[in-house]
Amino acid sequence: MSKSSTSSRESADRAEGRAGTEPSRRDFVRATAATATVGALGALAGCSGEQGGGTPEPKGGGGGSGSGGDTGSDSGGSESVTVDYLSAQAVENAAMKSHFQESMKTFEEKNGNVNVSLQTASYGDIRSKLSSTVSSGNPPTFAEAGGGGLQFYLNDKVPDHKPFIESTDSLPDDFTAANKESAQYRGEYWSGGGMRNTNSNLGISPKLFSQAGVSNPEKELSTWSGFLDAVKRVDKQTDAIAYEETGVPGDLESYWGYARTAYTEGTDPWMRPGDNPDNPTIVVANQDHEDRGKTDGMIKTCVKMANQFSSQEAAQRGDEDIPSLMLTGKVASFNYAVPTASRWTATKDDVKFGWQGGNGDFMLLPHPKVDPQFGQNFGISDLEGVEGQHGGHMWALEQQQCIFQASDAKQQAAWDLNMFLLSDNEFVLPAWGEHYEAIPGLKTKLQAVLDEYDLAQSTEQAYKNADKYGVQYSTTGASWDVRDVDPIRWTDINETISQAIAGQHSAEKTPKLIRQRMKKRLGQ
C-alpha cells in the first residue's frame, strides 16, 4: 500500500492454482502442465527478414528524469510516429495490465507526436510471437525480448544499443549490476536493459516450521545443514510436503539461485569465459577444475532434495503452483520465493507475511548457505568442508528490452519509451511497489519505491537480500558471453536436472550429462 494513499492495494488477478481435491502426501491431484515455459524467457532463434535501416545516432536527451517526470524526448520531429511495443510484463496480472494501458497514454501525452501500439503476449507465448513477426519481416519496434533478443542482435535484427545508452547522462551507471551485465555481450550493448529485476530466495510456511520446532528461522535456517535438519522434522512431524522443488525445466531457476550458495564473491558455478569466450572453461564435471565439487555437489543437492522430500509431481512443478499449495498447508518450503507479494494476495486476500510468532502464512528468507558439515550430513562428498555465502539468481537477462531495426525516428521514439519505463516515477513506483513488486531496473529508483510504499515482509526481505549479498546475486548466463546462452541454461542444465528429478537418470550421473550437452552445444 502506498504510504501516501489510504486506498487498499489492488489485488492482482494473476491465475494462481487453487486447492481442489485434497491430495495425499506424495500424490497431488493437481499437477502442473509440462508445457511450462522453457524459456519464455528462453531461446529465440534468429530468423530471416529485415526491416528498416541501420543504427540511428540518438538525439540528445532521451534519458529520463531523475525525479520521475519528463523523459525529455525529441522523438521524430513534427511527424507522428507509431511505436509497436510487444510486452509480456504488461499482462502479468490485471493490475499491471491496467497500469500499462494508462502509462502508455501518459507517455503519449508527454511525447505528443508519438503513439504507442501496445501488443501483449504471456511469457509462455512471447517467444513464438516475436519469432513469427521477425520471420515475416514485420517485427515490433520495441519488445521485451528476453535473452532471446541476443540471437536477434547477432543476426542483425537488433541494432547496437550503445549510441542510445551513451546519449544519456545516467546510463549505464544507473543500471542495477545485473541489468548492466545482462544488457552486454562481449562488451557490446545489445539491449536497453530491463524494466525490473527479480531475485530468488527461500520461502517457508511459518506455521509448519513452527510446528516442527523452529523458533528462530533467520538463524536456524541460515545454513544448508540447519535447513536440512528442519525439513526432516517437518517431513516427519506433519502431513505436508516438507520441500517442493519447482522442477519443470522452465522454473528450475530455483536451482540457479541456490547453486551460488556453495560459492562466495559472485563466482559463477557453471562456466568461465577466461581470455577466449569462444572456448570457455566448463566447470561442471570438470575433473581438472578446483571448483568442480562445489558445482557438481549443488546439482546433486537439487536432485536429492527433490527425491527425498518433494512430491511425485516435482519434475513438472511450476512456481505458480506454490502459493495455493503453501497457503493451504500442503507445502512447507521451496526455493523459488520472489519479491512479488501479489502472487500470494491473489490466492488469499489476508495473507500474513513474515514469521509472526510462528503463525504467519508465508515468510521469505535468504537461500541457505553451504556450511562445512553439509556435505557429510547429506551424503554428498563433493561438498564436505565447503563454506559458501548466501546469494541467488537475479532475473535480468529474461527481462531485457530491445529496439528492432526500423526508421531512425521510430527507433528514437522506442528509446524514449524505454527510458520512460526505466525512469519515470509515474510508471516505475506503482509498477514495482504496488502492482508487481520487484526491483526496479535502475538502482536509483529502489529507495523511491521503499519510501513510497509499505511493503510486505517478503518483498522487503528480498530487497534486503539482494542489497546485502551484492555480487552473490547474479544473472545466470549473463557473464558467459556465449551465443547459445539460453539453450545452455534451459535445456542443457535445467532439462537434464529435471530429467533426474523425474527418475530418468541418477543424481550422480547428472553433472556428467550436463557437461556432455554443454560441450556439444559449444562445439568443444
Instruction: Quickly give the CATH architecture of the largest domain.
Output: 3-Layer(aba) Sandwich
CATH fold type of the largest domain: D-Maltodextrin-Binding Protein, domain 2
Distance between the termini: 52 Å
Low-confidence stretches: 4-76
Let me know the largest β-sheet: 4 strands, mixed
Strand order of the largest sheet: 2-1-3-13
Number of domains: 2
Structural class: alpha+beta
Using only CA atoms, what is the Rg?
Answer: 22 Å
Count up the helices. 19
Q: Which percent bin holds the helix content?
A: 25-40%
Shape: globular
Mean pLDDT, to the nearest integer, reads: 88
Tally the beta strands.
15
- Classified by CATH, the class of the largest domain is Alpha Beta
CATH superfamily of the largest domain: Periplasmic binding protein-like II
Oligomer: single chain
What percentage of the residues does DSSP assign to strands (E)?
5-15%
Biased composition (Gly residues): 49-75
Biased composition (Basic and acidic residues): 10-29
Region (Disordered): 1-30, 44-80
Protein name: ABC transporter substrate-binding protein
